[in-house]
Automatic annotation (TrEMBL):
Domain of life the protein comes from: Bacteria
Protein name, entry field: Molybdopterin-dependent oxidoreductase
Organism the protein comes from: Variovorax ginsengisoli
Length: 192
């Protein structure tokens, strides 16, 4: 057996610690999909790595510690279903995923804070957590029963039920979702 294969398999099997991961950090079963940084009460990763966190570096994301969720962690949270007529095809779609407030609670975010919801294309939405709560904004992980894909509207989409919310329902369809970044991968939490 190739020594590199053996060493990699042993490290993955948990026979010895992997460099950079402390025993206090919860293990992730898959790649990190959503990073919550800033005013978080829980952490499971260290600072932005200038060599390996290329998208974050290109977008100017900086932190010393953060909380990262993978698909399994997002899937363990209670899913909420919404229906929204989307601007892209003017059709009603069913979206599901955990409440944004629940995701932030897992990361130990408390109080009335500001959020910077960042998408993979660099689009950033400043939003108060209080608004996200009142609109019952979700972190959608699926649409019409299928996972949201990277390269489409995923892997996550921060979205609310615009068709029924007083603040959005009477706006033209193209204006209802300006506060809903698709391709969500980072949330920066700061003082309100």
């Amino acid at each position: 057996m190739d020594k590199r294969h053996f060493l990699g398999s042993a490290a993955l099997a948990g026979l010895w610690p992997v460099a950079g991961v402390s025993a206090a950090e919860p293990a992730r079963g898959g790649p990190g999909l959503l990073t919550v940084s800033g005013m978080v009460g829980k952490t499971n990763r260290g600072p932005v790595d200038p060599a390996l966190d290329q998208l974050m570096v290109k977008h100017g994301v900086k932190f010393d510690r953060a909380y990262v969720l993978d698909a399994e962690a997002l899937g363990r949270l209670p899913a909420v279903g919404i229906k929204a007529t989307l601007e892209y095809d003017a059709r009603l779609h069913a979206l599901a995923g955990p409440l944004l407030a629940s995701v932030l609670e897992v990361a130990g975010v408390t109080g009335d804070v500001m959020l910077g919801l960042r998408a993979v294309d660099g689009y950033v939405v400043p939003l108060r957590l209080a608004d996200a709560r009142s609109w019952r904004m979700i972190v959608a992980t699926e649409m019409d029963g299928k996972p949201l894909a990277l390269g489409g509207l995923g892997p996550q989409w921060a979205i609310y039920e615009a068709d029924t919310l007083a603040a959005f329902k009477d706006k033209p369809l193209k204006e209802r979702f300006a506060l809903c970044p698709w391709g969500l991968y980072s949330i920066e939490v700061s003082r309100a």
